[in-house]
Structures are given as structure tokens and as C-alpha cells.
Design brief:
The chain has about 375 residues and is α/β, with parallel strands linked by helices. It is built from 14 helices and 13 strands. The chain has a six-stranded parallel sheet, with helices on both faces. Helix 11 links the parallel strand 9 and strand 10. Helix 8 packs across helix 10 and helix 13 packs parallel to helix 14. The chain starts with 11 loop residues before the first helix and ends with a strand.
């Protein structure tokens, strides 16, 4: 009887590889279009929330960039002391990978995935440090900007004129178990920059004239949204056929308001509709002049932020924009992204409306007769 082909017989090493994959930690990424949108801030907020729930969380490495709002979110989180090294007379701080592994927390927060380590480090790049932590069974939450993806190098250079030196292989991002898109309108980013919340004052003018132009920021936001949508699509296609619906039937958008009566109900309805259609869904918030930072109260702004954050956790793509008219902005978004279904909240009955004044859903129906409108 002829010997069986060795290649057809699963080896002990194959089974060991399966076991190791199951024991590996999970990776969550906060992905943004550029510095200053709030990736590190969001990562730290999640770390604190996990700690309050009894999860063992540590900071493997965080770079607050002297931003008070970000530094304040470190709070009571345990920090693994960084490894200090000297390079050309300058003292550098790097994540102490071995110390984090020895501490073996449930979750490690590791900022700036694309960072290049000091020459005497164990690994050349921080994403390699993260891979070491994952192999050790430690779950990692990290941050990265869209321009650092290897495959987008040429597109970023063409769009912005900037050659990005620090890059991350696409497969590292593709293997992430969860990606959260952190978005901010270009105007808000420029306001944050001018207020000194992103870079020191001496760098503001140059940043506004080069990388932080309206055109560049808009293009980077589009890249981030597209990459996140592609990631979700890949995840959907990787599911067993039994878990998938038969083909996608559209794109779903929900309009977020600072005055909605029950945003949770609105999001749940949208998520269910998108799941039934096997469709991507978007949570869109339009900030009109009436809802500027100086006019809207803190409670309303917090409600909007909480709603958008919940939408992200439920699998929606969050998109925030400024516009003179909510209806016109939503119509423009729906046409640009091929939206087939729109979910809006029912207008409050307690508010008096002028005679013949159209509601939001009436304006949407008139401008988008081909789109199905769901009023919750």
C-alpha cells in the first residue's frame, strides 16, 4: 500500500498553530484621518471604562503630546514605565515590551501603531511590539492615522504632497478584530489647530498652510471612511455563508440630532434595518450655525457625542459635518454615498411649527423620491 502523502496529513505543528491563534490577544484600532481628531483621547476613555468594569487595563505607551484634555484622561490607569534610551544625546522613551508581557494585563493601551522605535529596541516598529503582546495573549487597543497604511502611500502623496515615512503593513490593520473610525469635520480640526490643541503655537501657521488644508483634510477623511467600510465588508465576507444574507440591498443612513427624544431606539432600528439588508449604515450629524459650540449647551453636545460613540460600537460609520441646512446636507450625503434607506426621528409634537413649514422628513421625501424613508 503506497505511503500517504505527508502534505495531506495535518501535523502536530498545524494543530499547535491553531491553538496559538486561539490564545492570541485581540486587537482594536482607533483609526483617524490625521493627528488631533481624538484617537488617543477615545482610547483612554475606553481604558477607563474597562477598568471601572473590573478589567485589568494598563497603559503600555501613550503619547499625550502635551494636550491637557488627553492627559486628563489618563486618570488612575496603571502606566508601565517606558524604557529610556539615548540616541545622539537625546533621551527617548519607548514602550517596555518585556515589562508589559511580564505584567500580563488583560488589555494594554498602546498609542501610535506606526511609530519607529529607537535603534537599540527589540523591534524596529511599534506594530511589531504590538504583535509580540498579541502573541502573549494580551489584548491591545491602539491608534493609527490613515496616511500610515502602506498601500495608501502613493495616494496620500498625490492628494496632500506629503511623503509619509512611518508606515504600517496593510495586513496588520486587516487582522484587527475591531476598527473604530474617529472622525472630525475639517473646520473643527482647523479650529482645534488654531486654538493650540494639536501642535505648539510655532507649528500652527505652517500646518495650516500645508497638511491641514481644507482639501487635504477632506481627502484624508474620505480615505478613512472608505478604508473602514472596506474593512467591515471584508469582515462580512469572511463570515460563514449561513451567517450572511443573500447580497447587499443598499446603504442605510440615520440622521442624528442633538434634540432627539430617544437616540438609542433610533440607532437600534437603523442597525436592525442594515442587518436585514446586509448593508453598511452611517450615522450622520449635521451641525448648523444654531448648534455651534457657543450656542449649544454642554448637555446637548454630550448627548450627541454619546450617540455617535454608541453608533460606532454598534457597527455604524460616523460622519459629522457642518452645514447651513440639515436637510440639504443630508440630501448631499445621501446622493454622494448612494444611500437607499434613511432613518429619521419623528418630529416632536410639543413644538409649534409655522403654517406650511415642511418637516425634515418631508424635505427628504421631496428631494430624494427614490430613497425609502423610515420615521421612528
Amino acid at each position: 500500500m503506497p505511503a500517504e502523502e505527508p502534505s495531506l496529513r495535518p501535523s502536530a505543528e498545524d494543530f499547535l498553530a491553531i491553538i496559538r491563534r486561539q490564545q492570541a490577544g485581540k486587537l482594536k484600532l482607533y483609526l483617524g484621518p490625521c493627528p488631533g481628531v481624538g484617537k488617543t483621547y477615545s482610547m483612554l476613555i475606553e481604558g477607563n471604562r474597562l477598568k471601572k468594569r473590573g478589567v485589568d487595563v494598563v497603559i503600555g505607551y501613550v503619547e499625550p503630546h502635551e494636550r491637557p484634555e488627553t492627559s486628563a484622561q489618563i486618570g488612575d490607569l496603571e502606566i508601565i514605565p517606558p524604557r529610556l534610551t539615548s540616541y545622539h544625546g537625546i533621551t527617548l522613551k519607548e514602550m517596555d515590551v518585556d515589562a508589559v508581557i511580564a505584567r500580563k494585563p488583560t488589555v494594554a493601551l498602546v498609542d501610535e501603531l506606526a511609530h519607529t522605535n529607537a535603534p537599540d529596541s527589540k523591534n524596529r516598529k511599534r506594530y511589531e511590539d504590538v504583535e509580540d503582546l498579541l502573541r502573549a495573549g494580551i489584548n491591545v487597543i491602539s491608534t493609527v492615522n490613515i496616511q500610515h497604511l502602506e498601500s495608501l502611500y502613493n495616494f496620500v502623496e498625490q492628494a496632500t504632497g506629503v511623503r509619509v515615512k512611518e508606515r504600517v503593513p496593510d495586513e496588520v490593520v486587516a487582522k484587527a478584530d475591531q476598527i473604530v473610525n474617529i472622525d472630525l469635520p475639517a473646520e473643527d480640526l482647523q479650529e482645534r489647530l488654531q486654538a493650540g490643541k494639536i501642535y505648539p503655537k510655532e507649528r500652527i501657521e505652517a500646518a495650516l498652510a500645508n497638511f491641514f488644508t481644507q482639501k487635504n483634510l477632506t481627502r484624508l477623511r474620505e480615505m478613512t471612511l472608505t478604508e473602514t467600510a472596506n474593512y467591515l465588508d471584508r469582515k462580512q465576507r469572511d463570515q460563514p455563508e449561513s451567517e450572511q444574507n443573500v447580497g447587499s440591498l443598499g446603504q442605510v443612513m440615520v440622521a442624528i440630532s442633538s434634540q432627539g427624544p430617544d437616540p438609542g431606539r433610533l440607532l437600534r432600528k437603523t442597525a436592525r434595518l442594515a442587518a436585514q439588508l446586509n448593508a453598511q449604515w452611517y450615522a450622520v450629524y449635521v451641525r448648523t450655525p444654531e448648534e455651534s459650540a457657543v450656542r449649544i449647551d454642554a448637555e446637548a453636545q454630550r448627548r450627541v457625542n454619546d450617540t455617535l460613540e454608541t453608533a460606532q460600537k454598534m457597527g455604524g460609520l460616523v460622519f459629522s459635518m457642518k452645514g447651513e441646512s440639515v436637510a440639504k446636507s443630508l440630501v448631499s450625503f445621501a446622493r454622494e454615498y448612494g444611500i437607499t434607506h434613511i432613518v429619521v426621528g419623528r418630529p416632536g409634537r410639543h413644538k409649534l411649527r409655522r403654517l406650511f413649514k415642511m418637516t425634515l422628513h418631508e424635505k427628504l421625501l421631496e428631494a430624494l423620491p427614490e430613497v425609502d424613508l423610515v420615521v421612528v
